[in-house]
């Protein structure tokens, strides 16, 4: 059976792992007992049921800390990365207003960060957003010029969710530390995909989400650095009504979700190196084959990137028609999952200088554990078919056997 026929049987082929990942079967197996059998409230440790739940939560905290090379008491559970970003940004601003009101970030952050910063501006914060360089890389010199005595926080994502470009996090952290400024990092797309060592890199606050790393939806975490046993900042809680999570996040803990996140982190620790090689091989093959047709550009392609992400613009093609054809055989996206239902072009691509027309003719491919070499071959073939339908210029181009 040909690769095309084999893969067509499971069409649409899923290439949108940056939007979400399927829950790993081993993760689900770990979670199931905590729905019905071990259903206790983790805060009620005076009972056997509650104690069992509490111990499971703490074990998961250790598993996630191990993946990040952190300490377990530096992990705070939330409902996901969006809440973690809100807790970090709003919590730091509330705690540090007496020191200053200036926050520096990037103009191509996830909407969970940008929308929160915009809201903070309404309450008195002064926000500076750094535009990326044309190739998608971070502008370190611009960061240095923006720092003032009023700067209380620098918030930059570890790797861009649309381009896959990895930011110079170590350098940004060093600049922040040099000026005694807190550094926050949205690492949602990087955790479990590339190595992160928080013992070596002085990030103060880091956010992540389980469903990006083959865990369940509805659970995330915020890492808050401790130095000499004390938190680097006393973040003000944004959800009150309880003393859980060191008083930083009220509410009954989602024990099954936390257990699943812990198992997903453990699996990621074991699979990390092998998966990176597999993803990069498949991603590079996809890009190499598509570049042969011409009139195509890989956004961020000259930068260090996540191994599983490719952001490709198709020139002189009607983007909406291209996506309409491809959606029958491929599950792909035009950008962030949180904004893909919006018809406006990606703010990330516009910030890179792409026209609205080209931005709307751009596809993000993100590969994952279930992606096979046959899936990549099938994807290349399907894109060639679609391009030949849309433009005579592609009629003579055929994929490499």
From TrEMBL:
PROSITE patterns, alphabetically? AA_TRANSFER_CLASS_5
Q: Name the source's superkingdom.
A: Bacteria
The UniProt record lists the keyword Transferase: yes
| Cross-referenced Pfam families | Aminotran_5 (PF00266)
| EC code(s) of this entry | 2.8.1.7
SUPFAM superfamilies on file: PLP-dependent transferases
Q: What cofactors does the UniProt entry give for this protein?
A: pyridoxal 5'-phosphate
Alphabetized, the UniProt keywords read: Iron, Iron-sulfur, Metal-binding, Pyridoxal phosphate, Transferase
Domain Aminotransferase class V stretches = 13-377
Q: Which GO terms describe its molecular function?
A: cysteine desulfurase activity; iron-sulfur cluster binding; metal ion binding
Which InterPro entries is this protein grouped with?
Answer: Aminotrans_V_dom, Aminotrans_V_PyrdxlP_BS, Cysteine_dSase, PyrdxlP-dep_Trfase, PyrdxlP-dep_Trfase_major, PyrdxlP-dep_Trfase_small
Catalytic activity annotated for this protein?
(sulfur carrier)-H + L-cysteine = (sulfur carrier)-SH + L-alanine
> Is the keyword Metal-binding in the record?
yes
Q: Which protein family is it in?
A: Belongs to the class-V pyridoxal-phosphate-dependent aminotransferase family. NifS/IscS subfamily.
Q: What is this protein called?
A: cysteine desulfurase
């Amino acid at each position: 059976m040909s690769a095309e026929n084999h893969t067509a049987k499971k069409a649409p082929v899923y290439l949108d792992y940056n939007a979400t990942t399927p829950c790993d079967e081993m993760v689900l197996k770990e979670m199931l007992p905590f729905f019905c059998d071990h259903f206790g409230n983790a805060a009620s440790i005076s009972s056997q049921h509650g104690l069992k739940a509490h111990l499971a939560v703490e074990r998961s905290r250790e598993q996630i800390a191990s993946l990040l090379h952190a300490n377990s008491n530096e992990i705070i559970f939330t409902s996901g990365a969006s809440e973690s970003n809100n807790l970090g940004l709003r919590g730091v601003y509330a705690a540090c207003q007496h020191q200053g009101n200036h926050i520096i970030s990037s103009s191509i952050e996830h909407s969970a960060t940008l929308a929160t910063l915009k809201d903070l501006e309404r309450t008195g914060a002064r926000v500076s957003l750094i535009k990326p360089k044309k190739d998608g890389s971070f502008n370190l010199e611009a960061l240095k010029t923006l720092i003032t005595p009023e700067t209380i926080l620098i918030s930059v994502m570890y790797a861009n969710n649309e381009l896959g470009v990895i930011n110079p996090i170590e350098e940004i952290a060093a600049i922040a530390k040099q000026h005694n400024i807190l550094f926050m990092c949205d690492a949602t797309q990087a955790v479990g995909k590339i190595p992160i060592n928080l013992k070596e890199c002085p990030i103060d606050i880091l956010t992540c989400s389980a469903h990006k790393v083959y865990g369940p939806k509805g659970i995330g975490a915020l890492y808050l650095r401790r130095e000499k046993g004390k938190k680097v900042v006393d973040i003000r809680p944004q959800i009150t009504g309880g003393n859980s999570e060191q008083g930083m996040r009220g509410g009954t803990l989602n024990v099954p979700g936390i257990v699943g996140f812990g198992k997903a982190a453990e699996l990621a620790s074991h699979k990390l190196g092998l998966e990176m090689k597999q993803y990069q091989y498949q991603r590079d093959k996809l890009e190499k084959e598509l570049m042969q047709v011409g009139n195509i550009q890989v956004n961020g392609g000259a930068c260090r990137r996540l191994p599983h992400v490719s952001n490709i613009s198709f020139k002189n093609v009607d983007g909406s028609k291209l996506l309409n054809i491809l959606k029958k055989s491929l599950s792909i996206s035009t950008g962030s999952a949180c904004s893909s239902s919006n018809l406006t072009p990606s703010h990330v691509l516009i910030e890179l200088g792409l026209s609205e027309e080209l931005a709307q003719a751009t596809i993000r491919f993100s590969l994952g554990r279930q992606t096979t070499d046959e899936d990549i071959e099938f994807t290349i073939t399907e894109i060639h078919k679609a391009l030949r339908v849309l433009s005579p210029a592609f009629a003579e181009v055929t994929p490499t056997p």
